[in-house]
Amino acid sequence: MTPAFPGGDLSTGWLAQWRQSLWRLRPADLDMVVLRHSRIYILPTPRGAAVICTLAIMLLTSMNYALSLGYAMTFLAGGMVAAALLATFRNVVGVAISPLVAGEAFAGGTMEFTLSLSSRGRDRTSISVGARTGAPVDVDLPAGATRPLRLEVPAPRRGRLPLGRVSVSSDFPLGLWRAWAYVHFPLTASVYPAPEASPPPLPPGHTGSDARRSTRSAEAELAGLREYQRGDPQHRIAWKAVARGAGWFTKQFEGAGGSGAIDLEWAQLPGSLDVETRLSRFTAWILAAEREARSFALRIPGTDLPQGQGPIQRRSALIALALYAPEDKAP
Amino acid sequence: MKAKKLPDSPLSRAQSGWLAALLLCAQVPLWSDVLPWIAIAGTGLVIVRLVPALNAPGYARPPLWRRWMLPVLAVAAAVGIRAHLGYFLARDPCVQFLFVLVGIKFVEARSTRDGTLLICLAIFLAITQFFYAQSIFAAITAVPSLFALGGALAALRASNAAQGPIAAQLVAPGRLMLQGIPLAALLFLLFPRLAGPLWGSPADAGARTGLSERMSPGAISELSRSDAVAFRVDFNGPPPDSRNRYWRGPVFSRFSGREWSASYRIQPGRFARREGPVIDYTVTLEPHGKLWLFALEHPASLPRPASEDDITGVSSDIAFLTYDQQLIARSTVNQTVRYTQRSVLQGSVMPVPGDATDNLQLSRNNAHTIAFARELRARSDSDRAFIDTVLRRFHDEPYVYTLTPPLLEAEPDPVDAFLFDTRRGFCEHYAGSFVLLLRAAGIPARVVTGYQGGEMALDGKYMIVRQSDAHAWAEAIVDGKWQRFDPTGAVAPSRVERGLGAALPLGEPVPYLARLEMTWLKSLRLHWDSINYQWQRGIVGFNIDRQRDFLREFGLDSARPVQLVAIIAAMAFAWVIPVLALSRVRRTRADAEVALWARACRRLARAGLARRPDEGPLDYVERAALRWPQWADLFLLIGTSYAQLRYGAPDARRATLLSKLCASVDAMPRARSLAS
Asked: Does residue B117 belong to the interface with chain A, where contact is any CB pair within 8 Å?
């Protein structure tokens, strides 16, 4: 007999599945989620609870004093509250949400996750989307619109930062009810170490034969222009050429890959430094090297990144630093 | 996108405006029911808050004195109400206090949390007006407060920037209210009603017009100036003729020399002996805050709740009959009561032991009257002859029947003054002095008050008895049984036959509806009364009995509360589906510009310039602009705004663009004028 779920017996599987459908604790929403009734919760807001209590008191008063019109008014207000419940539900049901990308962040900053929200055929008013931490975002969507939605999540530490469970909620139209649904995308970002505030200057390039050159290595010389390619850093775009209408070009610096090439090595740093300070210094250096358009290699325990330059090199290096785990440290 | 609002943010102008609207909607219907200074203070404070200075941003952090204002003013108001009314812990003072409290709270309200509290207080205040009146008018005045409730809630929810145009702010709560109406009607009809109050009887149900426990000169003439309805009657069969419409109410045996009041005896009585056909009818009695129920003389049954099933034979007693033929209810008539009643028009009431002695009591004053009666009795052959002489005297001597008799307050002998001096009086003067004359002559007699007359409603289906029909007459033991004598009939016979309006001389302040001529205004008032009657019966009087009647029509009268709840739940579910589906058929906003553009294209096509299938909107309007250069600007505007709406990024300018497109399509020349 084969178990229904590999690696688990039936009862815990059931229980887990039920808990998952209630709380969405595992990131199991792999693609676009359309919010259906099975996912949507609805409860009165504090204001809604206060109004409902008042209506109950009004009902008791009408009963005691046999006020027919008191009943009528209480029930009319109650009908309005009930209609507001349905309106709140309607505002949320059918909204589609899908994961787009995660941004970049250094420890201590905020990470920006981008989701996409579609109204799918109905006007949506004041849909609030929020991760577990960070401020939720309110959006209005006309019928048929799809909007990107940027969620800012605090990134206090380097390492992996999952977006976590996101709640999509609304208290439109009267603020008496809050309808919400949980979605949990497996969207994870890497938080880079915070760059050291005032790092020492970059180590000297190892292939630099000319001492004079290496001292002024911070000032790479413009060698020429080449056709712009996607992914070139913004600060190297030849904006003057763009402004002239000549087209898109990227500035090329002479010797950037040669004489300035740096080796960033774990062992270079004084042994007294702790791990996080080392990672912060490497981060600061990588950013500096990138700014100066110099090629670099990164060798830390567990990672050996060959010489390279450009956004991909930068990203690989920063991710390596972000995910550096001390137990991998070489003796 | 905007930052999420804080749960407790300062009130914006729009929010305080909506709150003020809600508070005023709740306060205004209560103006006539609260003390004048409470009305001025409560409403004045709400208006003061609307002064722009108080809405300045700095108001969110008020100086110390403003924070102390709420408790100080609230205590002052409570003390004032206590001093004015003499008591505080009762319903009416609490309504007054709530009325002024919402004003005080509103002046110092700063945050949306204060707004929530105010909303709750205001909707409660809005139903307190039904303590005092449940008329159609009262119901209509409650509708704006429901509107304002929706508007205020929507305004409190939205953050400051997100308040839409005022029309949209009105439409959204209105739509919710309409959607809620079926559910409200369902609950109104099916929510189980109670037979009695939950906590004690509402003691201060308010002073009502109606007959009182005492009768002094002027009491009934005062009441007769009111057009208010006392009760309405449905007859099973033809109504009795006007001479027999004596609706018996409180009976008075004790006389202080000036004032008549009820005997101390409480003793059950027996029905009159039947000497003619019975008459069955249903009375819908307006609340009068007293214990008695009214029946035609003489009652032949105990009143039964009108909806009681006759077949079951189980009659719950709502009243009992006293020895002096009064119907006394078991609880104060504080809400409309409907009861079926049977009477015999001809019947005789036998005196009970004690009647003779009780009803011979005289007063120490009015010596002239007493001496006169004794002398007159000595000259008469029999009691009957004596009574005829007295009635003839009322008829022949210059006695005047008037609503404005001279005040006899200062007279030590009011009956003497009336009988021998002023000779002007209303029914209570005639009945009172008549009884005193009879007693002085040794004939046991008492005063009966109630109503005499009644007017058939326009549709002829029911009779209206008004306060202006209030009347007093006399009863005396003659030939061994109680007999009715109406001395007013001797003075002004038409009072008994045709009502007050016919009996009073010209120029008397007769209540409008008691007058005889059937002007259009009176006919309008009678129509209105008919509507009011249905309102009182169907809506205000929808109590546990009427509910049972209603359920019986569906065979649900024996349903247990659990079954009722199940029915309510099932029908509420049936309500949910169309309300949820309603928005699916609604046209989305995205369609608006398409419809407008299609209209513009159709018109141009009729004028001879059809859009090619592959042509974009901008190219098409350019072609149209070249063809009709005088309209070039308009066409280009239509094309560009359509393209922007349809293909541009959705943004805040959408609404303005859409209205611009709408206006320009409306401004397009007719196809014929373009073609020519």
From this structure: yes
